[in-house]
Amino acid sequence: MSVLRTCFALILNALLLMWALPVGTAAHAQGFGGPPNITATLVAESRAPAPGSDTAIAISMAPAKGWHGYWINGGDAGVGLTVEWTLPPGVTITPPRYPVPDTLLIAGLMNHVYEAPYALIADVRVAPTVARGTLLPIIGKARWLACTDAICVPEAGVLTLTLVADDGMIDAAARARFDQWRMALPRPVESKGHFQIVGGRIRIALPVPETLRMTDPHLFVETPHLVSAGANQSFVSFRNLLIVETAIGDPASAAALSSGRAILRYADGRGLEFMLERGLVANPPVKTRAPDGPSDISLFLWALGGALIGGILLNLMPCVFPILSLKALSLARAGGDAHAARRDALAYTAGSVMTALALGLALMALRAAGEQVGWAFQLQHPVSVLILLALAVAITANLAGLFELPVLLGGVRAGQNDGARGGFLTGALAAFVATPCSGPFMGAALGATLVLPPPAALAIFGGLGLGLALPFALIACVPALQRRMPRPGAWMATFRRWMALPMALTVLALVWLLWRQAGATGLVTAILAALLTLLPLWLAGRAQRASKAGGIMLAMVPLLIAPLAFVAASAPRPAPSPYHLTDAQPWNPEALAATRRAGRPVFVFFTADWCVTCKVNEAAAIERDATAAAFRRADVAVFYGDWTNGDPAITRALAAHGRNSVPLYLWYRAGAEQPEVLPQILTPAMLADRAAAR
User: What does pTM read for this prediction?
Assistant: First the structure.
């Protein structure tokens, strides 16, 4: 084995020496006398970057079958891609970021490789002085190593791309492609890790919570000579630190290093990126961390309990109340009939749980496809809001007595109960409408679905639906509660019409939301949708009262609404409304980092117009004179992230803090490395007190 390893290293070094010799600038990547074994292509997310802004570019690498490329630190026997840029005036490019690599052991040599297509992503920065319409030719002389298990071939090529300074427009296909590539990048962790060299060993402490689920973990150290790539690695948990111990690389070089960089791969294709500093690292007497240890079970149980409690508390939120009024009407019709009450409550529970599971399954499928989405993703699209608006108008008209339908989400016909089918649909609608709401326990519980296995994550979503329906499910199990239900009577007709009021308020809220999502086009579309829904229903009601069939009129509603869905989907997205009192500025990672380096305290809040909890917090605690005055006295910088129409960058920021929903509130003390995650229900004193303490 040692002879084979030595021979392999000698051959590789000879190839690398040949690779280091000058090469001609070919128009395409090339190997020795034939097509490349790894095809390299330079692509841009936006071919029209705006002056004074950044756009992403990617070097897309496509290995042929059986071949692989290398990470920036290739391990024992490989090298990553290098590129020399030729750039026009006013353009700079950041160093490329690599996706999380895999390990490949060949002849006793540890390699850090990519065997499937991958992409290196960098940012092109265009200076504000560049005039619009200026051509921006980008040329990169790239070299990389392509290998199989038996041979390695140095390859090189000239990668070219011509951009035009313009408006920064990004088409949907390019955005989706780059978002999928970004999903493969490791998530940067703000807190630094530390390393300590003890004899011929190195201990590295990484700030990793014990709840993080790990499968086949491996630490890739970018800094050369700090660790031995092929040495065994042990992982130990200690007080929310993950301590990795392994053998050092070159002793002399490692002793001279004061900092470094590393990636922790904690699951297939997922990783965390750390900056490392030399420092003291404890050697705790605890057992090695297991990839699927008890922490996963405790995280699941904790998250399931949080989802149940959070679902129960959702019944107190104003966004769910209109739907609960439908259920209250249904239960009132059941009166003291224990069988009917039990049947309706169980059907309502089934509808709520199954809808929550369906939304959770759709969310997980979109993530698996590379989409950057989070909870309530469906309300980030105007088409979904338009459909929900038409449904709310129909329910309002039914409750007001304009028309009758045998089963309309709970059977809201006067004096009649539509049984299990209506209860199921009411529960489904309640779960669908509840998704933009967020309250205590919910954010952290749903955030756990980011790291739990798919079956456990689905159970969390189901637990949320069960919690939402639990008050009504108790009616099915507690006879005393059933006996307390009021008897049906003439009062129900009046009660039914009063229940149209909260549904009408929901209609107004959805009209406002479409205006916020799609501007004036969204407002006009929403009003037309409401009128085109209401008119056929009113005509159907007239036909019903004249003892004629009104089914044709009811069938016209989706036909009239369908064209408006295309208008809403294509409408331009308006800019978020500014926050005047707190002088909040739009969130972006670079501005946040610069403000923190300046030593200022920072308050960051992530919000959305469809998030009722967010809007209540903003009115009650954030956009208040007292809060603004306290922030000015303490020189607090305020950033807001608007997630109304979805934003992959905000989705990644939420995930970095263990969340996949809004609201999220972060408080950075001056000089602090990690933020304090504030509760999802804010009070003015909570913010003012932190500002006073800086």
Answer: 0.50
